[in-house]
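Structure ticket #2291
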Amino acid sequence: MTRSSPGVARVVAILNFMAEHPDESFTLTDIVRALKLSRATCHALLAGLVEANYLYRTNDKSYVLGSALIHLGQVADKHLSPVRISLPEMRVLADEYDAVCTAVFREGNEIIVRERAASRSNLGWSVPRGTRLPLKPPAGTNWVSWSPEADADAFIDETMPGVSKEFREELHAGIRLTRELGFQIILRTSDDQRGSIGWLFNEPDAVAGISVATSLDEGQTYPLASLAAPVFDAQKNVAFVLVLSGLGGTYTAAQIMQMGKRLSEAGHRLTDFLAGRQP
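Resolution: structure written out below.
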């Protein structure tokens, strides 16, 4: 991994410090003490940032955020959406695994397809952007897999009233495996389905046709329907989920782990972009 220069690291440290205290102003002495920089180095860096309008030096010789930095933030907020940043990651995954990769957001008890990328052979399985689907187990438990068990139970009760004790226990076992691996595994129980995102969440027989994996054993093969990995926000909540679907055939445990690791790594990079935090 390429390392940045010490000078760049010091500039970033100053800007991060100022951004963490947007309503305050700081003198040179304050910043030197907080960041443990030499006075001469810090003074030179502040002068450069003031010249570029990234910081503003007030009449009392203290520093606040500058107009150029505020403008950059507004541009980034308007144009650098997580969906836009997700698309290159999704295209690579879709082509690599001959599948469909979808960015799925939650609104209440619905999910919304914000973006999707499909390999050429899977174009017919790609649902349109903006599609709304009901959020329900087993695939829907991805949004509560990192929540307290009581929250997961509340979600199951709300989306599947009257669920059996056995199915509830299966869902919780799937949640535990999802947390352990960092991604969710949905298996097909019917060979005549390929596991599109619409089928996973919308078709009446979907729950009968799929199940959440509760274990992954070396040497076994599995009829894989989909994999899903979360992207987290700054509050450690699931911001959205990357779903790899449109899969057919059977896969070994090693193949599933490799695919899941790649999907999860993409989720980690997008979490970093959002300044999110892993639970």
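Closing remark: The two ends are 25 Å apart (CA to CA).
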